[in-house]
Amino acid sequence: MGGRRAAKGRKRRSPDGSGARGRKARERGGGGGGGEKRRATGAEWLKSAAYALFLFFVLRLFLIQTFVITSGSMENTLLVGDMLVVNRAAIGSRIPFTGIRIPGYSEPRRGDVLVFDPHHEEDMTLVKRLVGVPGDTLEMRGKVLYLNGEAQDEPYVVTTRQPDGFDRVMLWQREYLVGGPRDDYRPTRDNWGPIAIPPGHYFMLGDNRESSQDSRYWGLLEGWRFEGRAVAIYFSYNRGSARAFPWIREIRGSRIGDLIR
Where do runs of H (alpha helix) occur along the chain? Predict the structure, then answer.
């Protein structure tokens, strides 16, 4: 009797050793596998985010840039509140914090609207139209621009009857006058030149000729200062509006998607 009770009281084990302990072990093992999967998923997410961030910086630094118009110097081609897409790859771009420049697939062309870092102001980026390239001769007579002796048809230019005037900062032009420097040279906003554009330099003008601080005043621009070619308007709103939330209530829908010419 006692022997039978002892045998009956002993717990029976499955042949493969799987019992309650085995089940608990499997449950613990299953939980561990889920943790590993979560860790693997988290690592994959971080890796994807890092790749996306790297791609963004590559696009931003070398291919595409955005620019917001904050002054009226390019009216009516560009209005205050226009937001531009700038092609950095077209004419090359600089690697930040270095003097290295990645070559572009094209050269700056007359008529291009370009974004650049001017030499006369640190921490400033401007957008103007390129009107003179190395080897050109430029002159302005009575608001009309002459390129290599020929008057230019510029339908995008805005002028008014605002009186002309002399500005001493324009005297830098003396050193580039065709025929050599002259002491009697007194350039004005609407009458200056002819000047010869030297190698590696460019002449920039705003389309709103009487409200633009450009190469007439601060001088020639070195080619390495170009940041890119403005190609399109991706958003626009009336930035000067007194209404609340103008970026919502004053959107210029007709300008969105316009190519810049």
Answer: 2-9, 20-58, 215-218, 246-249
Q: What is the reported pTM?
A: 0.76
Question: Is 2 part of any domain?
Answer: no
Residues with Cβ < 8 Å from 233, sequence gap 6 or more? 78, 82, 83, 84, 85, 255, 256, 257, 258, 260
Query: For residue 71, what are the domain limits?
Result: 63-255
Q: List active site positions.
A: 73, 128
Would you say residue 103 lies in a domain?
yes
In a domain, 55, yes or no: no
User: Maximum CA pair distance of the chain?
Assistant: 135
Domain at 111, CATH number: 2.10.109.10
Classified as helix, coil or strand, 234 is strand
DSSP 184: T
**How large a percentage of the chain has pLDDT more than 90?**
62
Number of domains in the chain: 1
How many residues are present in the chain? 261
